[in-house]
Design goal:
- By secondary structure, the protein is of the alpha+beta class.
- The protein has 3 domains: 29-213, no CATH class; 275-358, Helix Hairpins (Orthogonal Bundle); 368-497, Histidine kinase-like ATPase, C-terminal domain (Heat Shock Protein 90).
- The protein is 48% helix and 19% strand.
- It contains 10 helices and 17 strands.
- It has a 6-stranded mixed β-sheet, with helices on one face. A 5-stranded mixed β-sheet has the order 12-14-15-17-16.
- Strand 9 (184-192) and strand 10 (195-204) form a beta hairpin.
- The protein is rod-shaped.
Length: 498
């Protein structure tokens, strides 16, 4: 039971692991694409808000990095986590807010004075206070889209337009270890009268870290996380329950098979509702029935063998006792009678031995292409002339691949049986791996003619050992063929095919 329980348990766990693994993989891929769409959407909204705020009072404002800071901060909503504002050389001048994961944005230590001078900042995007050395910033390849915001202003008019930079080659930017290039949702290059005044990297929260979606996403993930241990416990109980039922069924089957092996029949099988186990029960029931039939057949065979062999033995004993008592004279005729009974006994013993050998698992049919005339001569030479004249032969389409010794025995046995069963002519037809034997007679009903010691029709029941057709059946079995006997009109036809 322990091994069965382990196999069932591991099977359930494997199924659960595959299902959960597929769910996790699908969710991770989905989250990856949702995060990309999220950051792009937030950046586009930020860009739209920033350009809209710039347009308001475009003619009334003098533009510098300081004035741009104010517009950048007022354009950010709560989905924007932080801003890195760089000077035209690409060095970080000031930072606001946090990383997408909620960590503080660091600034170069050499720019602390510039940060302290700044008067901007808000509750959502406070000024960055943590400082690290400039060596802490390393070059990273930019992955985000870059948009150029062009502000044109003269003494009378002011205008603004936005273009997106092409991506013929990757640009490098300096980032601290807390920020990855993929954390940047997008970048802005802000120029005033064709002079770049600021570079801005926009960082956004992820669906996990944004306060309005983080709870929802975590709520979706928690059921999957909890599903694994719950499924593990369920697999444990299911495996234990099924293994107990399976153990009871196995023990019932084992008990039934032990009874069958000890010679009992009509054994009781365990009840089940599982289709596969019902099939096993049906097959064991068939085995039980076949064993019972075989037992009855063996008993019948033993009685038949005893009777069949005892007849010539009893006849010889009577003759020998008669000779000893002086009832029968010790003449040639008496010895011929003894020889006849002895020959009958020898023939029947030989048939029993042959039938037994044919049923051996080691016996094989040694097939070869037969010479038809030689086969016919081999079979007919065993009959006297008066019987040969009663056999009509049709071998125009003869073509046989078979064991010559076994097939010649089968042909002789069937012809001899047919000649004994009828005083009329008998037919022998040979085709392509096929032979038919025909004689006039009537078959008895409800008889298995291929069962040992069964006598076929009424005319054939007066002589023979009852092993002729069973031996022929075994020869066909070794040839992977069939033997069939049927009544066609007034004729009995035995067909051999392989």
């Amino acid at each position: 039971m322990r091994r069965q329980f382990v196999r069932l348990f591991l099977g359930f766990v494997l199924v659960v692991a595959i299902v959960v693994g597929v769910q996790v993989a699908v969710m991770l891929v989905s989250i990856h694409y949702q995060r990309i769409n999220w950051t792009q959407s937030v950046f586009q909204d930020y860009l739209s808000s920033f350009t809209s705020n710039l347009k308001d009072g475009l003619n009334l404002r003098q533009y510098s990095m300081s004035s741009i800071e104010e517009v950048l901060l007022m354009s950010a909503d709560d989905r924007v986590s932080g801003l890195y504002i760089r000077d035209p050389d690409g060095k970080v001048a000031i930072a606001y807010g946090k990383t997408s994961g909620g960590n503080t944005l660091p600034i170069p230590r050499s720019r602390e004075d510039d940060v302290n001078k700044s008067t901007y900042g808000s509750a959502d995007l406070p000024k960055a206070q943590q400082s690290i050395s400039e060596q802490g910033f390393s070059a990273s390849e930019m992955h985000s889209d870059v948009y150029e915001v062009h502000i044109l202003q003269n003494t009378q008019t002011a205008s603004m337009y936005v273009t997106q930079q092409a991506k013929p080659e990757r640009q490098s930017i300096l980032l601290p270890p807390q920020v990855k290039a993929t954390d940047i949702a997008g970048s802005l290059v802000i120029s005033y009268n064709d002079d770049v005044i600021a570079l801005v990297d926009v960082l956004t929260f992820t669906p996990f870290t944004y306060k309005n979606t983080g709870f929802l996403v975590r709520g979706l993930l928690y059921p999957i996380v909890w599903a694994a241990p719950i499924a593990f416990v369920l697999a444990l109980f299911m495996a234990a329950s099924i293994s107990r039922k399976s153990e009871r069924y196995t023990q019932g089957i084992q008990s039934a098979l032990e009874k069958l092996s000890s010679g009992e029949n009509n054994v009781e099988l365990p009840k089940t509702t599982i289709d596969e186990q019902k099939t096993i029960n049906a097959l064991i029931g068939m085995l039980d029935e076949n064993l019972a039939q075989n037992k009855r057949s063996r008993q019948s065979w033993l009685r038949s063998i005893s009777h069949d062999l005892n007849t010539p033995v009893a006849s010889m004993k009577v003759v020998l006792d008669g000779i000893a008592d002086g009832v029968f004279p010790a003449t040639e005729q008496t010895y011929l009678a003894l020889k006849k009974e002895n020959d009958a006994l020898s023939e029947r013993i030989a048939q029993v031995v042959l039938y037994s050998n044919l049923q051996s698992p080691d016996t094989r049919a040694m097939k070869s292409t037969l010479d038809i005339p030689s086969l016919i001569d081999m079979v007919l030479s065993r009959f006297p002339e008066d019987k040969k004249e009663r056999i009509y032969l049709d071998a125009e389409e003869a073509q046989l691949d078979a064991d010559p010794k076994l097939l010649s025995y089968a042909a002789y046995a069937l012809l001899d049986n047919a000649l004994k069963a009828s005083t009329a002519s008998v037919g022998w037809s040979i085709g392509k791996n096929e032979m038919k034997f025909t004689n006039t007679a009537q078959l008895a009903e409800g008889v298995d003619f291929f069962e040992p010691w069964t006598k076929g029709d009424s005319s054939r029941g007066t002589a023979g050992s009852g092993l002729g057709l069973p031996i022929v059946y075994q020869i066909m079995r070794l040839h992977k063929g069939t033997a069939q006997i049927e009544q066609i009109g007034d004729d009995v036809v035995v067909s051999l095919k392989w």
